[in-house]
Amino acid sequence: MHSEETSGHRLDCIRKRRNLLKNFFRLRGMEPKEGFDCIGYAAHDESGFLKPFKFKRRNSGPDDVVFRVTHCGICYAEVIWTRNFLSDVQYPVVPGHEIVGVVTKVGSNVSNFKVGERVGVGYCAMSCLHCDSCKEGMDSMCVNLATRVFNAVDVDGTITRGGFSNIMQAHQRFVVKIPDALPSDVAAPLLCAGATVYGPMKRLGMNKPGMKLGVVGLGGVGHMGVLFGKAFGLHVTVFSTSSSKKDEALGVLGADAFVLSKDEEAMKAQHNTLDFIINAASGSIPLDPYLLALKQEGVLVLVGAGAEAKFSPHNVFMRKFITGSAGGGGAKNVQEMLDFAAEKRVFPLIETINIDYVNEAMNRLVQNDVRYRFVIDIENSLKPE
Fold first, then answer.
1. 312-351: per-residue pLDDT in tens?
2. 192, 96 in Cβ contact below 8 A?
3. I want to staple 280 with a disulfide (CB 3.0 to 4.6 A). Which of 48, 165, 181, 221 is the partner?
4. For the chain, where are the alpha helices, taking DSSP H only?
């Protein structure tokens, strides 16, 4: 957990940024106006309990795409922010960042999206558009203004609300098209879990047939690493602390090998055998056994949400590398990933739920009791009271 001093600093930064944006609009005679009515589910305190919530989204602008939400995935990030693990939440918070829906309105500057098309929005709602990361199309890595789709300061100074709601809007730069071959419920987890592993795999050359990939942690993100690894033609080894996952790893997901990470001899047998490893474990785990499993010039990619990373510097002296990734980069990369997933039929394994089951689903997610991603059927279960 973060200290009270760090927590206070986070909230102060959010409030200052919000006030600066509001003053910017006021000084130019552009007082922000509340936009359209929405319904959703929000957490109101650190219990994280979600309940029906009415709110207004900001007015849509000339570059915005407005869409009716049909489905939204549940990522561990929803747990982190609804329960205020990072001490930066401004309640009430409407979570959800794997959002799929159907376009209902487009701004006057929008030409790439049309009413009636299926679209999606992931982690990022806005960026500065000018830093090196943004110029490279890596908006989620923006060093100045990486704005989440929920619990962040929007362009008009209001707080963003996520996809656990009936209507969504986003700047056209951050919207992607859902290919016809991807069902909407299946597409939702790809917008975060899929993008999170696909991005570094492409960027680091982890897509060459015959290379050897290890995946640590067989959850929502980890199982996507296995599926994309096989689609790229890699030899995939799954590492897990639970032997109960062996059958699914090999028989359902198609992995080539399974290693029980608690078995020291089995781990030793992996030394210097793998080209890449994706660590998707949500907890903090020792990294040294996995660094030892890498060949020279091998790369360990951290995509899980562990609080800290522990390893011996000696295990990277042999030209082994550690990097990280979140959010998949930008919409261009996400669109490429969706098109590839549609072509290769990379379909995440999901459990579709109604929104009134969301609190039970969040608790099950914490207990790792889902195979492998919850997706909320917003369209058929979120109704006005």
1. 988 888 889 999 887 767 899 999 999 999 999 999 999 9
2. no
3. 221
4. 4-27, 76-82, 132-135, 184-189, 195-203, 220-231, 246-247, 264-268, 288-293, 331-344, 358-366, 378-381
- Interval 189-237: pLDDT, tens: 999 999 999 999 999 999 999 999 999 999 999 999 999 999 999 999 9
- Give the Cα separation of 47 and 219 in Å (integer): 24
Cis previous bond, 372, omega within 30 = yes
The pair of structure tokens assigned to 70 is: 């049909």
Around 68, how many Cα atoms within 13 Å sit in the side-chain half-sphere? Answer: 12
Judge whether 280 and 225 are in contact, CB under 8 Å. Answer: yes
| DSSP-assigned letter for residue 192 | I
Contact 194, 337 (CB under 8 A): yes
Ranges of H-type helices in 176-330: 184-189, 195-203, 220-231, 246-247, 264-268, 288-293
> Measured in whole angstroms, how far is the alpha carbon of residue 305 from the centre of its chain?
11
